[in-house]
Amino acid sequence: MEQVLFVCLGNICRSPSAEAIFNALIVKNGLEGELQCDSAGTAAYHSGDQADYRMKQFAQKRGYRLTSISRPVDPERDFDRFDYIIGMDRQNIRDLKAMARNENDRKNIFLMTDFCQNMKYDSVPDPYYGGAGGFELVLDILEDACEGLINKLQNDSF
Hints:
By secondary structure, the chain is α/β, with parallel strands linked by helices. Helix content is 44%, strand content 13%.
Protein backbone atom coordinates (compact mmCIF):
# COMPACT_ATOMS: atom_id res chain seq x y z
CA MET A 1 0.00 0.00 0.00
CA GLU A 2 1.34 3.41 -1.02
CA GLN A 3 1.14 6.13 1.64
CA VAL A 4 0.98 9.86 0.81
CA LEU A 5 1.41 12.76 3.24
CA PHE A 6 0.31 16.25 2.15
CA VAL A 7 2.09 19.09 3.96
CA CYS A 8 1.53 22.84 4.24
CA LEU A 9 2.46 25.37 6.92
CA GLY A 10 -0.34 25.08 9.48
CA ASN A 11 -2.30 22.07 8.18
CA ILE A 12 -5.64 23.91 8.15
CA CYS A 13 -6.14 24.97 4.50
CA ARG A 14 -4.08 23.46 1.71
CA SER A 15 -2.95 20.07 3.01
CA PRO A 16 -6.32 19.03 4.52
CA SER A 17 -7.91 20.02 1.19
CA ALA A 18 -5.40 17.90 -0.71
CA GLU A 19 -6.14 15.02 1.67
CA ALA A 20 -9.91 15.31 1.10
CA ILE A 21 -9.58 15.60 -2.69
CA PHE A 22 -7.12 12.70 -2.87
CA ASN A 23 -9.39 10.54 -0.68
CA ALA A 24 -12.32 11.29 -3.01
CA LEU A 25 -10.19 10.24 -6.00
CA ILE A 26 -9.10 7.06 -4.21
CA VAL A 27 -12.77 6.10 -3.82
CA LYS A 28 -13.73 7.24 -7.33
CA ASN A 29 -10.96 5.09 -8.83
CA GLY A 30 -11.54 2.08 -6.56
CA LEU A 31 -8.06 2.32 -5.04
CA GLU A 32 -8.98 1.99 -1.37
CA GLY A 33 -6.79 -1.10 -0.98
CA GLU A 34 -3.78 0.48 -2.65
CA LEU A 35 -3.54 4.10 -1.46
CA GLN A 36 -3.87 5.96 1.82
CA CYS A 37 -3.14 9.56 2.72
CA ASP A 38 -2.88 11.98 5.62
CA SER A 39 -1.91 15.62 6.07
CA ALA A 40 0.33 17.59 8.42
CA GLY A 41 1.93 21.00 8.87
CA THR A 42 5.52 22.15 9.09
CA ALA A 43 4.50 24.26 12.10
CA ALA A 44 2.33 23.32 15.08
CA TYR A 45 0.41 26.63 15.17
CA HIS A 46 -2.98 24.95 14.80
CA SER A 47 -2.25 21.51 16.26
CA GLY A 48 -5.49 19.82 17.30
CA ASP A 49 -7.67 22.22 15.29
CA GLN A 50 -10.06 21.41 12.48
CA ALA A 51 -9.51 22.86 9.01
CA ASP A 52 -10.14 26.58 8.49
CA TYR A 53 -13.90 27.18 8.31
CA ARG A 54 -13.60 29.09 5.03
CA MET A 55 -11.63 26.29 3.40
CA LYS A 56 -14.23 23.80 4.64
CA GLN A 57 -17.04 25.90 3.12
CA PHE A 58 -15.41 26.21 -0.30
CA ALA A 59 -14.45 22.54 -0.35
CA GLN A 60 -17.96 21.48 0.66
CA LYS A 61 -19.42 23.35 -2.32
CA ARG A 62 -17.37 20.98 -4.50
CA GLY A 63 -18.43 17.91 -2.56
CA TYR A 64 -15.34 17.49 -0.36
CA ARG A 65 -15.47 17.05 3.41
CA LEU A 66 -12.44 18.26 5.33
CA THR A 67 -12.40 16.07 8.43
CA SER A 68 -8.73 15.96 9.38
CA ILE A 69 -7.33 17.44 12.57
CA SER A 70 -4.20 19.56 12.30
CA ARG A 71 -0.94 18.04 13.42
CA PRO A 72 2.72 18.86 12.86
CA VAL A 73 5.02 16.69 10.78
CA ASP A 74 6.70 14.05 12.95
CA PRO A 75 10.01 13.31 11.20
CA GLU A 76 10.66 10.11 13.15
CA ARG A 77 7.29 8.61 12.26
CA ASP A 78 6.30 10.28 9.00
CA PHE A 79 9.49 9.71 7.01
CA ASP A 80 9.30 6.01 7.85
CA ARG A 81 5.59 5.64 7.13
CA PHE A 82 5.00 7.69 3.97
CA ASP A 83 6.27 6.92 0.47
CA TYR A 84 5.44 10.42 -0.81
CA ILE A 85 5.70 13.55 1.34
CA ILE A 86 4.26 16.36 -0.73
CA GLY A 87 4.73 20.03 0.16
CA MET A 88 2.43 22.73 -1.12
CA ASP A 89 5.10 25.38 -1.74
CA ARG A 90 8.86 25.81 -1.91
CA GLN A 91 9.12 26.91 1.73
CA ASN A 92 7.34 23.70 2.79
CA ILE A 93 9.86 21.77 0.70
CA ARG A 94 12.81 23.58 2.35
CA ASP A 95 11.32 22.91 5.80
CA LEU A 96 10.72 19.23 5.01
CA LYS A 97 14.26 18.81 3.69
CA ALA A 98 15.58 20.40 6.90
CA MET A 99 13.55 17.87 8.93
CA ALA A 100 14.74 14.93 6.84
CA ARG A 101 17.09 12.64 8.71
CA ASN A 102 19.04 11.51 5.65
CA GLU A 103 19.11 11.35 1.86
CA ASN A 104 16.64 8.46 1.87
CA ASP A 105 14.07 10.73 3.56
CA ARG A 106 14.79 13.57 1.12
CA LYS A 107 14.12 11.42 -1.96
CA ASN A 108 10.46 11.04 -0.89
CA ILE A 109 9.80 14.81 -0.76
CA PHE A 110 7.89 16.29 -3.72
CA LEU A 111 6.26 19.61 -4.66
CA MET A 112 2.48 19.36 -5.14
CA THR A 113 2.38 21.37 -8.33
CA ASP A 114 4.87 19.00 -9.99
CA PHE A 115 1.89 16.66 -10.41
CA CYS A 116 -0.32 19.24 -12.16
CA GLN A 117 -1.45 18.14 -15.59
CA ASN A 118 -3.25 21.25 -16.88
CA MET A 119 -2.44 24.18 -14.62
CA LYS A 120 0.92 25.94 -14.57
CA TYR A 121 1.76 27.04 -11.02
CA ASP A 122 5.01 26.67 -9.11
CA SER A 123 3.21 26.38 -5.77
CA VAL A 124 -0.18 26.07 -4.14
CA PRO A 125 -0.60 29.60 -2.70
CA ASP A 126 -1.65 29.96 0.92
CA PRO A 127 -5.23 31.34 0.92
CA TYR A 128 -5.33 32.12 4.65
CA TYR A 129 -5.05 35.93 4.39
CA GLY A 130 -6.85 36.27 1.06
CA GLY A 131 -10.40 36.28 -0.17
CA ALA A 132 -12.74 33.81 -1.83
CA GLY A 133 -10.72 33.68 -5.05
CA GLY A 134 -7.70 32.32 -3.18
CA PHE A 135 -9.65 29.40 -1.73
CA GLU A 136 -11.13 28.57 -5.13
CA LEU A 137 -7.69 28.70 -6.76
CA VAL A 138 -6.26 26.34 -4.14
CA LEU A 139 -9.03 23.84 -4.87
CA ASP A 140 -8.53 24.19 -8.64
CA ILE A 141 -4.79 23.52 -8.36
CA LEU A 142 -5.25 20.66 -5.90
CA GLU A 143 -7.87 18.94 -8.05
CA ASP A 144 -5.49 19.06 -11.02
CA ALA A 145 -2.43 17.96 -9.01
CA CYS A 146 -4.27 15.16 -7.18
CA GLU A 147 -5.51 13.78 -10.51
CA GLY A 148 -1.94 13.91 -11.80
CA LEU A 149 -0.65 12.15 -8.69
CA ILE A 150 -3.26 9.40 -9.01
CA ASN A 151 -2.28 8.94 -12.67
CA LYS A 152 1.42 8.79 -11.77
CA LEU A 153 0.83 6.23 -9.04
CA GLN A 154 -1.38 4.09 -11.29
CA ASN A 155 1.14 4.23 -14.14
CA ASP A 156 4.02 3.36 -11.80
CA SER A 157 1.94 0.40 -10.55
CA PHE A 158 1.55 -0.09 -6.87
